[in-house]
Structure formats: C-alpha cells, structure tokens
Write a structure and sequence with these properties.
Elements lengths: L1 E10 L2 E8 L10 E6 L5 H13 L12 E2 L10 E2 L13 E9 L5 E9 L13 E6 L10 H12 L3 H7 L1 E3 H9 L2 H12 L3 H28 L6 H61 L1 H13 L3 H124 L4 H5 L1 H67 L4 H85 L27 H75 L3 H16 L4 H18 L11 H90 L11 H7 L1 H72 L7 H68 L3 H8 L3 H37 L7 H63 L5 H26 L3 E5 L7 E5 L5 E4 L5 H19 L7 E5 L7 H13 L6 E5 L5 H4 L2 E9 L2 E8 L13
Parallel strand pairs: 3-14, 3-15, 9-13, 13-14
Antiparallel strand pairs: 1-2, 1-6, 4-5, 6-7, 7-8, 10-11, 11-12, 15-16
Pfam families: AAA_23, SbcC_Walker_B
GO molecular function: ATP hydrolysis activity
Keywords: Coiled coil
Length: about 1300
C-alpha cells in the first residue's frame, strides 16, 4: 500500500483547493520529506484529509460525544456533534471534499473521495450526509453503492483497517516516549491502545464469567435432581394390583348400571307411546266434529256455483250504464272545447295584424341611421389607434421614472452597506487586538481538548467509583443481614419438616396394612346376593303379572272378535247402498250438464229474427226463441236432484267407512290382544324358568358360599380390630352373626307365584340391606383414616418444599453477599486508580492556563464539562471573529465596486425618463383631437351600441310577427278538430243509451224466470272463483284431516303394541329409578378410586422420566462445564489481566524484535529487552559499556527520542506484516536531537527508501529544511486561511502547480 496523492477543498484552514502529489517531482524521487508550519496552520489537516478519504474517520475525531456544537441562535438540528467529521468543512463554505490516490495490494491505482456539503451548497444551509466513492483510475470503474460497501472495498484494497493504518502509517512518536516513561500498569494501557490488543481482556473476562455461570448452573441442576421424589418398586406394584381390582369392580358395576338404565328406558318409552295414542284418539274426534260443522258451508258453495250463470248478464248491464255516463260527460267536454277554440282563433288574427305593422316600422328606422354609423366607425378606428400610442408612451415614461427612482434607492443602499462594512472591519480589528491572549488556546485546541476530556473522564470515574464504594458497602452489610435471616429460616424449615414427617408416619401406622381388599370382597359377596335376590324377585313378580295379563288378554280377544263380525255386516250393507247411489248420481249429473249446455245458448236468442238463419245451427225456424223460463226450471231441477243424490251417497259412504273403521279397529285390537296373550304366556314361562334358574343358582352358589363369606367377615373384623377402638370391635361382632341368621332360613319355594316366595324374598332382602349398611359404615371409617394419612403426607410435602425453598434462598443470599463484598473491594481499587489518573491529567492540561488569574483548577474540578464548554466557546469565538474579519474585508471591497456601478446606472436612467415624458405629451394631444370629433356623431354613442339597438328592434318585430302567424294557423286547425269531436260525442251518447236499454230488458227477463232479486244475485256473485276454489280446498282438507287422524291413531296403536311385544324387562318399574341411582353412585366411587391410583402411578412415571432426563442433562452439562473450568483456570480473570498480560508480553517481544532492528541503525550502542521476571517492564542494554543493563529512565532526551522512534518504526513493521506499507508519517519529536544525532536519524529514515518506503516528518524544527531535500510548508495567510507550498533544494525543480494550493 502506498499513498500517491492527497487532495482536498475547503477543509478547515484550507480555503479552496489544495493538493500534495507524492508521485510527482520532486517528492516522487525522495524517501524523506518534511511537513512544517506554524501552530494551527493546518499540518494535521493533511492527515485528516488522508483518513477522511480512506475511512470517513480521523484520529482526533474518533471519540463519542452527545454535545452539539454551534452558535446560541442556531437550531439544534443545524448543529453537529463535537466529533462529527462533517465539522471539517470550512466555515462559510457550501461544500468540500478530500481525495486520496493510492496503490492497492493488487498494484492498481485507486482514487478514494470523501464529499461533504450543505443544503443547496449555501453557507447557511444545513449539513447533508457525507458520501464516499472509490474509483479505479485506469478503467474508471466505481466500487460500492452505499457508504458501507465503499468502506469495505477500500479496506480490501488497502489491506488495512483504520486502526491498523493509524498504527502503521501515522506514527505518533510522542506516545512511545510516554511508553518508555510509564510504569507497568500505564505501559499496559498504552501498549493496548497502540497495538489493539484490548480483545484479550474481553476474552479473559468472558472466560471467567462463563465458568462462573456454568458452575452455578451445575449446582442448580444438582439441587433440582435431588428434589425429585420417586416411589419405591414395592409401592408401585401394590398400586398396580389395587388399580386392577378397582377396574374389574367398576366394569361389573357399569354392566349392571347399563341393564338398569335399559329397563328404565323401556318403561319410559311405553309411557310415551300410550300418551301419543291418547293424543291421536283426541285428534280423530276433533277432526270428525269439524267435518260435521262444515255442512252449511257446502250448501253455500253449491248456491254460489248455481248463480254463476247470471254473471254475464249482470256484467253487461253494469258495463252499459258506465258507458252511458262516460258518453254524456265526453259530449259536454267536447262542446266546451269547440267554443273556446272559436274565440281563441278570432283573437289571434288581431295580434297577427299588429305584429306585421311593427315589423315594417323597424325596417324604416334601420335604413335612416345607416350613413351616420359608417362615418362613426371610421372615427372610432382612428381614435383607438391614437389612444393606444398615447397609453404606450405614458407607460414608457412611467417605467423610466420608476427605474430612475429604483436606481437612486439602490445607490443609497449600496452607500449604506459600504459604511456598515467599514464599521464591521474596524470592530473586528479592535476585538482581535483586545483578545490576543486567547490565540494560544485556539491554535492548539484539539490537544487541550483531549487533555480536558481525559481529566473529565478520570474525575467522573473517580466520583462514580466513590459512589459505588458507598453503595456497595451498604449493600454488603444489608446482604449479610439477609443471609443470617435466611439461615434462621432454613433451620426453622428443617425442624417443621421433621415434625411433619413424624405426623405422616403416625397416620400411616394408624391406617394399618390394608383392610380395603377384605371389605371390597365382602361388599362384592353381599352385592352378588342382592343381585340373586333381585333376580328371584323379578322372576316371581313377572310370573304373577304375566299370568294375570294372559287371562285378561284371552277375554279381550273373544270380545274384539265378536265386535269385528258385527262391523263387517254393517259395512257390507252400507257398500251396497253406496254403489246404487253412485249410479243414480252419475245419471243425474249427465242430465244437469245437458240442461246447463242448453241454457248457455239462450243468450243468443235475442239476436234471432224470423226468416234469418240461426248463427249457431243455420236453421230458418226458431221455435224456442221465447222459451227461456222453461230451460231455467229444468236446470234448477237437475241441480237439486244431484245434490240430493250426493247427500245420500255421502251418508252411505260415511256409514261404510265407520263400519270399516270399527271392523279394522276390532281386528287390530283382537290381533293385539292375541299378541299380548301369547307374549304374556311366553313371558310367564320365561319368568318361571328364570325363577327355577335363580333358585338353582341360589342353591348351588349362595348357600355353599356362606362359610367363605363368614370367614371373610371374620378376617375383616380381626384385621380391623388391630387399628380400631372397642366400639368398632363390637360392631364387627354384630356383623359376624348376621350371615348365620340368613343361612338358617329355608331355600326359595319352587313355585314362583306362591305367596310364600314373596315373604322369603322380603326377609332375605332385609338381611342383605342391614349387612350392606354396616359395611358402608366401616368403609366410611376407613376412608376417614385414609384422608388423615393423605393430609399428613400433603403437609409433609408442603414443608419439604418450604425447606427446599429456604435452602435455595440461603444459598442465593450467601452468594449475593459474597459478590457484593467482592464488588466493594473492586470499587475501592477503581476509585484509587481514577484518582491517580485525574492528578496526572491535571498536570498535563496546566500549560495553556498558566496566565489565568482566576482559580481555574477549582472551576475545572467543579464542572469539567462546563469548563471545557467555556474554553470551546472562547476558541469558537476566536475563530468566528477571525472569519468575520476576513469576510468583512471582502465585503467592503465588494460594496465599493457596487457603489461605482450604481452611480453610472442612475445617470442613464435619468436621461431615459426625460425622453419618454416628451413623447407621451405629443401622443396624448393627438388622442384628444380624435375624441372630440367622434363625440359630435351619434351623440357620442358607440356604433356597436346603435347597431345592436336597431338590430334588436328589428329582430323582436320579426320574431313577434312569426309567432303571431304560427299561433293563428294552429288555432284555426284546433277549431276544426274541436267541432268534429263535438259532433262525434253526440253520436256516441245516443248509441250508449240504446245499449243500456237492451241490457236492462234482458236482465229483467232472466230475473223474473229464476224467481230471485237482483240484490240477492249480486250478493252471491260477490264471491268469485277464487273464493269457490278456496272453500272447496278447505272442505277437502277437512275430509282429508279426518282420514289422516284415523291413520295416525292406527299407526300409534300398532307402535305401542309392537313395543309391548318386545318383552317386559326383568326389573320392576317401581325399583328401576332407585337402582339406577345406587349403581351410578357405586360406579362413580369406583372411578374416583381408580383415578386416584392411576394419577399416583402417572405422577411417579413423570417423575421418573424427569429424573432420568435431568440426570442425563446434568451429566452432559458437567462435561461442558469441565471444559469451561479448565479454560477459566487457564486464562480467566474478573478484570481481564490474566490473559491480557500474557498476550501483551508476546506482542511486546515481537515489537522489541522489530524495534531493535531499527535501533541498530539509529543508535547501534543500545538494545531493548524485557526485565527478567516481569511481563511489561523494559531495560536497555548498553553495548559500549560491555552490555551493561540500564534503566530506560537513565536515557537522555535525544536517546529517548531515538528509542521511541525505533519503537514507532517497529510498530509500523509489526502492524504491516501482511501488507507492505510504503508511506509513513511521523509526528514531532526531532527538536530534542543534537545536529549529529539528527543527521543519523534522518539518514536512517531516508534509508527506508531502499525498502520502497516514503517518510513524511511533521515537525516545528526550522533546521529540517536544510537537511531534507524537499519541504512541504503550510503557510498562514491570515483570516484563518492557509496555503500549501512545496520547497526543494537547488537543482530540484518544483512544478508550478505544487507550489501554492
């Protein structure tokens, strides 16, 4: 990597462009050149420009800061942070840039450019974000689109990061001089900062913290594993066996429960079917009553249908009446319209004549005015031209006068600005003279700013450490007290757990070994007896009930068969009558149809005339033309006959249906009774068989089991006596005698229906119930003891958890107390270290304030930020005043030039105004002459106005005449139409009266023949076809509802019979509900016991799984923690020193290797090495004194400079081991050398050219120009401006563009 050129524009003191071309003569052929200049001239700006272009950062603007720098009257958004690199832009400049050409690792030439500007490139605009670019000079290719991508591309081609570049190319020799004078701790900090080895401290601290966390996690996992409680294998096997017994008992109880619920469902369904059958019977009775109540509605429907034959005649009369009324109204209306049309036509003829006269008068007026209009138009044209020229001349004169006034005002403003600029120059010069003491602080402000920040940081660290000391001391005391309290709580928890353990042991001993199995066996034995007794009771009761039902059903069969025979005879007679009536009804309907057809043609008889053919049949004779009344009587007679026959037929059909229903009902009832009889017989047989089977089961199973049951009772009683009181023992003795009383009874009778069987069953059931009640009391007592044992175990678990929590809290309290004590010790050490650093920083910052009379040290210690801010205000004020002075001088020169130009401009504007005024006067006179001539014509009115008035009068007269003519023609046509329509209306009225008379005659004739009135006929006809259809549908619906209700009754009766035929349950209906509840309770008890056992086993399974998983996790974590423990023991420490010191010692060895190589060239006499037994302490070996070992503090000033220079060159070689750095810049330090040593140092640096390096020395030493071939001088020009000058020895040509920038 080699720097070829540094360029820039408007950066701090460099106003405008500047350039330092290192690859062009004379600098390209030299290995050594100097950069010199006065303090504050801008030497460091060259290095800042180099870093900005390459990294967007500078060494002196690398710290974080939230302080916003700017004037008091500026917005905060317009200010910049104290370390914002955009602050490098020169004040008053709108934009600036830094540019560097360099050779990359690949040997190609690249150009990096950094741009900064303000908004709209104006000096008062706000800063915009800076931009970076990288270009291949040869190809012009750009790299990267964003700033981050460009920085990455630059770093890849340089081969160096910013920190590496700063250590290998920008050598701060002053830091190595401090490195030699520092003790071991300070040398460690300096070496860390110079070599970038701070990462090793972070690694050491991270390893220490990671090891502590891993050990803490191991401890936590171990405690968690120990806290998991597991059941023993014996307990698990016992719980599994008990679970199996409970499951088997639950299955038996659930089977009995399902049988009982099925019986209850059967009885409930039978009751539901009986209720539905009763509802269906009620529905049949209701439907038949509604059908009989609808007989008057059927008669009304037949009357309405008969009246339909008169609808056409009545409608014709009504239509004729309405037509007559409309014709009369139309005649009156049309006569009125005809008279109005005659009057309107006469009036419109007068209007037309008046409009024609007005049109002629308008034409005459327009012809008389036409000559005057033509002359006036000519004068208007001449006057308008004169007016336009006068207006233009006046406007030009006005503009000229305004321009002259503006020029006078501008001259006055320029003169005032000139006076103001002169005053600003004088004021700035006076202020600079009165504040000359501020110049040293302002010129080297960056140096003093760094020192003040170091002091502020040290003071802040000291104060923070002091506050931490007080706070951590109080925390340590408080945590110690808390740890003691946790110890006492832990001891109390241990004692409580011991008490709970004793209570649990006592409760489990009181519970005994296990009496539950014996009680369950006894309970199952008693329940089995109860089931057997229930089967006997059901079989006996069923046999008796079914015997009675069989006899009742046989009698019912006989009764229903006799009723069926009687209903069959009645149905046969009714069917015969119905067939006869249907045949007669068919013939009557045919006769009625023929009569109605004949009557339908009667409406055409009015059109028949003697001698004319009939329009229907063509006959010339019309014998029935006047016989309408006879046909109407025939139709009425046929209709009455049809109604009579329909009534007779319906009555026969109703009798037939009723008889059929009675027969079907009787047959169904007989069939059902036979089914019930057969079912009862089968069930009776079944119950007898069930009785015999249950009796045999009792004889075989129950009676021989007496001894085993008695022994089970005795065993349960003896086992319970061990843990119960004397009263419990007495109860057990009573229970032991109960089975013997039952076994003394005789076996069940052989006949299930015998009265003795019921008495025996009642006695046996009472005995079993008493023994079950006694057993329940024993189970309740055992459950109470088990509950006490569970409560004791729960209390033990609670107190064990409390003891574990107290143990964990004690451990955490002791750990917190230990950490607090360690933090308190570390805070004490930090406070002492910070106090020493503050005192050193105060010594370094003293020089610029030596002349201060005020107690500046106290103010600095009181508020470092405020003190630094005031110093910065001074510096900013000084720089602003210098910039204002320079700007005021330039402004004064500009204002003087503007004043001369404004005076010339004012003279020209005055002459133009006079010329324009004279011309405007001439044009105005010509306009006045033309205006007077025009005013004498048309009374001054415009030609357009006169022409518009005449044309408007003419157009209005013409339009009025046209409208009058059109209206007259239209009214004449309307008069003709109205007259014709009135005549037609008279004819239509006469025709409507004739039609009405004819229709009324026909209607009167029909009404007289039928024997009814018109009002009665209209009342019947008011019910139309829709009513008839709706009424017919309603009556049909009533008939259908009767049939449907009868069908539903039959279906529900059959469903009830089928359900009863499915078989009566073995359990009695009265006992089913109680038995279901009792069995459901027993099943629930079994389920709860089973769930408790299963939950206990599941909990233990989960605990075992968790125990195994946590054990495996603990083993894995222990292996990982061992690795971190080894690493923590090797390199870990809480402050990071353990690994940092080791790594820095290795770095120091490499640095000394490179430094001694350069020291052999600079001062062959000396060699650096580490002090034996110390990591970072240095000593000097003096070769001229027989390799005598000396302290580095014994070196003189010049010797110290040579050693520190060798260290700086060594760091450059160390930092650039992977990338060859061919351009170096060394800052200061040569003023301490004598001429001979200076020559040696310069010769050594110049010899670096042989390795391809080029070295630039930044120094204030004036003699460097005589010893170095080329010197780059930064020359102050005043006003905060500097220029760059390249000066060479005689014989070295300096290009013109390299001399001044």
């Amino acid at each position: 990597m080699k720097i070829l050129a540094i360029r820039g524009s408007n950066l701090t003191s460099f106003a405008g462009d500047f350039a330092l071309e290192l690859d062009r003569p004379p600098l390209d052929r030299l290995g050594l050149f100097a950069i010199s200049g006065a303090t504050g001239a801008g030497k460091s700006t060259l290095l800042d420009a180099l870093c900005l272009a390459l990294f967007d950062r500078t060494p002196r603007l690398g710290g974080p800061s939230k302080v916003l720098v700017g004037r008091a009257d500026e917005d905060e958004e317009a200010r910049l942070s104290a370390y914002d690199v955009r602050g490098m832009l020169r004040r008053g400049a709108g934009k600036g840039h830094a540019e560097v050409d360099f050779l990359g690792k690949d040997g190609r030439r690249y150009r990096a450019r950094w741009n900064v500007w303000r908004a709209r490139e104006r000096a008062e605009g706000r800063f915009r974000p800076q931009e970076l670019s990288l270009t291949d000079v040869a190809s012009g290719q750009l790299f990267g689109r964003t700033k981050g991508e460009v920085l990455q591309a630059i770093q890849e081609r340089l081969g160096l990061s910013f920190d590496q570049f700063r250590r290998s190319a920008l050598l701060a020799q002053g830091e190595f001089a401090a490195f030699l004078r520092a003790d071991a701790n300070e040398r460690a900090e300096l070496l860390e900062r110079m070599t970038g080895t701070e990462v090793y401290s972070r690694v050491s601290i991270a390893a220490h913290e990671k090891n502590a966390k891993e050990q803490e996690e191991l401890k936590r996992l171990s405690l968690g594993l120990a806290a998991i409680a597991l059941m023993s294998d014996a307990d698990r096997e016992g719980a599994r066996a008990q679970l199996g017994e409970e499951e088997a008992a639950r299955v038996r109880e659930e089977t009995r429960l399902r049988e009982a619920e099925a019986a209850r469902s059967w009885y409930a369904q039978r009751a539901e079917f009986l209720g539905q059958e009763q509802q269906a019977g009620s529905a049949v009775a209701k439907a038949e009553a509604e059908r009989e109540a609808a007989a008057p509605r059927e008669a009304l429907l037949e009357s309405v249908r008969a009246a339909e034959g008169f609808r056409a005649v009545v409608s014709a009369v009504e239509a004729a009446e309405q037509g007559c009324v409309r014709a009369e109204a139309e005649q009156l209306e049309r006569a009125s319209r005809a008279e109005a049309a005659l009057a309107a036509a006469a009036a419109q003829r007068q209007v037309r004549m008046q409009a024609e006269a007005a049109r002629a008068a308008a034409l005459d007026a327009e012809a008389s005015v036409r000559p005057a209009l033509e002359e006036a138009a000519t004068l208007d044209t001449r006057r308008a031209e004169a007016e336009r020229e006068a207006r233009e001349a006046a406007e030009l004169a006005k503009q000229s006068k305004a321009a002259e006034a503006t020029a006078r005002e501008a001259l006055a403003l320029v003169q005032a600005a000139e006076v103001k600029a002169q005053a600003l120059v004088d004021a700035a010069e006076a202020w600079r003279a009165s504040h000359a003491s501020w110049e040293p602080l302002a010129t080297e402000w960056s140096r003093w700013q760094r020192e003040l920040e170091r002091f502020a940081g040290a003071l802040k660290e000291e104060q923070a450490a002091g506050a931490d000391v007080d706070r951590l001391g109080k925390d340590a005391d408080r945590l110690g007290n808390e740890a003691q309290a946790r110890r006492e709580e832990h001891q109390g928890a241990v004692e409580s757990e011991a008490q709970a353990q004793a209570l649990a042991t006592h409760a489990e001993a009181a519970l005994g070994e296990d009496g539950g199995a014996a009680r369950r066996a006894l309970r199952e034995t008693l329940l089995a007896r109860q089931d057997a007794l229930g089967a006997l009771a059901l079989a006996g009761e069923g046999a008796r009930v079914e015997g009675t039902a069989e006899g009742d059903a046989a009698a019912e069969v006989k009764r229903h068969r006799e009723a069926s025979l009687r209903a069959a005879e009645e149905a046969k007679d009714a069917a015969s009558r119905r067939v006869t009536q249907e045949a007669m009804l068919h013939e009557a309907r045919r006769a009625q149809s023929r009569a109605e057809a004949t009557q339908g043609l009667a409406s055409h008889r009015a059109a028949l005339h003697e001698g004319d053919p009939c329009p229907l049949c063509g006959a010339l004779e019309h014998p029935y033309a006047r016989e309408g009344s006879a046909l109407e009587g025939l139709v009425a007679e046929a209709a009455a006959r049809v109604l009579e026959l329909e009534s007779a037929r319906d009555a026969a059909a109703k009798q037939e249906g009723a008889a059929s229903v009675r027969q079907a009902t009787a047959d169904t009832a007989a069939t059902q009774a036979e089914a019930r009889r057969d079912t009862a017989a089968r069930k009776r047989t079944t119950h007898r068989e069930s009785w015999r089977a249950a009796r045999e089961r009792w004889t075989r199973a129950v009676l021989p089991g007496e001894d085993s049951a008695s022994s089970a009772d005795a065993k349960a009683s003896s086992r319970g006596e061990k843990a119960r009181t004397a009263s419990d023992a007495g109860a057990s003795a009573t229970n032991a005698e109960a089975p013997r009383s039952l076994s003394a009874n005789a076996s069940p009778p052989e006949d299930a229906e015998a009265p003795a069987a019921q008495a025996w069953i009642r006695a046996a059931q009472e005995d079993v119930s008493v023994r079950l009640a006694t057993l329940r009391e024993e189970e309740a007592s055992a459950e109470a003891r088990a509950s006490a044992a569970r409560d004791a175990r729960t209390l033990l678990e609670t107190r064990r958890t409390r003891r574990e929590g107290a143990t964990d809290a004690l451990r955490k309290a002791e750990d917190a107390w230990s950490r607090a004590a360690q933090s308190h010790r570390e805070a004490l050490l930090r406070r002492d270290t910070a106090r020493d650093a503050r005192e050193r920083a105060l010594t370094e910052v003293s020089p610029p304030f030596a002349s201060e009379t005020a107690p500046w040290k106290e103010k600095l210690a009181e508020d470092p930020a405020r003190f630094q801010s005031r110093c910065f205000d001074r510096v900013t004020k000084w720089r602003e005043k210098l910039a204002e002075l320079d700007a005021s001088r330039r402004r004064l020169e500009e204002e003087q030039g503007r004043r001369a130009r404004e005076e010339d401009r004012l003279k020209d504007r005055h002459e133009d105004a006079q010329t324009a005024g004279h011309r405007a006067s001439l044009k105005d006179a010509a306009f006045q002459d033309a205006s007077k001539a025009r005013a004498r014509l048309l009374h001054g009115r415009s030609t357009q106005e006169v022409r518009a008035e005449l044309q408007a009068r003419l157009d209005a007269a013409q339009a009025t005449y046209e409208r009058a003519r059109e209206d007259s023609e239209a009214l004449q046509q309307a008069e003709k139409v109205a007259t014709a329509r009135a005549e037609d209306a008279v004819r239509l009225r006469t025709e409507a009266a004739r039609v009405l008379d004819s229709a009324q005659a026909v209607l009167a004739e029909r009404l007289a023949g039928h024997g009814t009135t018109l009002e009665e006929l209209k009342a019947l006809l008011s019910r139309g076809a829709a009513w008839c259809d709706a009424e017919a549908r309603a009556l049909n619906a009533l008939r259908e509802s009767v049939a449907q209700a009868r069908a539903v009754l039959v279906e529900r009766r059959e469903r009830r019979v089928r359900h009863e035929a499915s078989g009566l349950p073995a359990l009695a209906e009265a006992d089913v509900a109680d038995l279901c509840e009792r069995l459901r309770t027993d099943v629930e008890v079994r389920r709860r016991a089973e769930a408790l056992l299963r939950a206990k086993l599941d909990t233990d399974d989960a605990a075992r799984a968790r125990h195994g998983a946590e054990a495996r996790a603990l083993e894995l974590r222990r292996g990982e923690a061992e690795v971190w423990k080894t690493l923590g023991d090797l390199i870990g420490s809480h402050d990071g020193k353990k690994f940092k010191v080791f790594a820095q010692s290795l770095t120091l060895d490499a640095l000394l290797l490179h430094a001694n190589a350069h020291l052999r060239e600079l001062a062959r006499r000396y060699r650096l090495e580490r002090v034996p037994g110390h990591d970072l302490d240095l000593q000097v070996v003096d070769g001229d004194m027989g390799d005598e070992v000396r302290s580095v503090a014994s070196l003189s000033g010049g010797e110290s400079f040579l050693v520190s220079l060798a260290l700086a060159l060594g760091l450059a070689s160390l930092s650039s081991e992977t990338t060859q750095v061919e351009t170096l810049f060394i800052d200061e330090g040569f003023g301490t050398l004598d001429p001979e040593t200076l020559e040696v140092a310069l010769a050594t640096l110049d010899a670096l050219q042989a390795t391809g390096r080029q070295v630039g020395i930044i120094s204030h030493v004036s003699g460097l120009a005589e010893r170095i071939g080329v010197q780059v001088r930064v020359v102050k020009q005043g006003g905060g401006r500097s220029r760059l000058v390249v000066e060479g020895d005689a014989g070295i040509v300096v290009p013109a563009d390299q001399q001044v920038a």
